[in-house]
Amino acid sequence: MVSHREAEATIKVDIFNVDVKELKEVTENTGYSVETMYFNTEI
Prior knowledge:
By secondary structure, the protein is of the alpha+beta class. The chain has one domain (13-43). The chain is built from one helix and two strands, in the order ββα. The longest helix has 10 residues, at 20-29.
């Protein structure tokens, strides 16, 4: 989900199948900042 008004994006991933450190690195390498990462463990 992306909000241009709020200047933020929410990305939902399966943390068991995605390397979140790599996701953060790739995002930052494209010129975007990653200010907050949180994990919702609800199933």
